[in-house]
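We store chain and fold; thus.
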Amino acid sequence: FERYVASFTVPTSFTGTYEVTSQMVTSKALDQAAIAITTAATTDYGLHLNNYATVDRITLNHTCNATGTINGRSNCAILIGAKLSSDDTASVGAVVSNVKVNYTDTGTFSGNTVAGFGDVSKLSIENLDVVTNNGTGLQFHWGYNAGATRTYHPRDIKITGYQITGNTARTTGLYLSGCHDISATDVTIKDC
């Protein structure tokens, strides 16, 4: 599906969380300067994709220097959907395409490079290339509402062209939990 929205460029560096809404499309070419992201706090989420957000043709150099135990949503390079386990915020129709992520964990935290949690649907991931020294390259995991009376499950997700290169035994290539209706083609997992 194609979307016609205003062109938008993420700053060349930021710390913490940058909200990407449906009105934003990144247009930084892979051969241009990359975007540097630094996260450390439990409330740092990197690029957070909301409904119908698109991230296209960018390179993210992400440094996570978190220590201790932090939830898997914190310190992602790209987070889609809920920020907390008990968050029922939906993310519908997001697109991640032609993205390269270099994820470096300098702390003791094993984070997720790209992740979707809870009520995530109609998501398209195309040509995602991840290089990481720790954590999970691509993860989708279920969530629940604040009263724990309803669960939410990632669904209707299409992954086409995903490659991850890890370099430690603590690296996981692809992690799916409580998901349904997901297709993955042309997936390469190296050294994980």
In short: The radius of gyration is 15 Å. The chain has no helices and 18 strands. The chain has a mean pLDDT of 77.
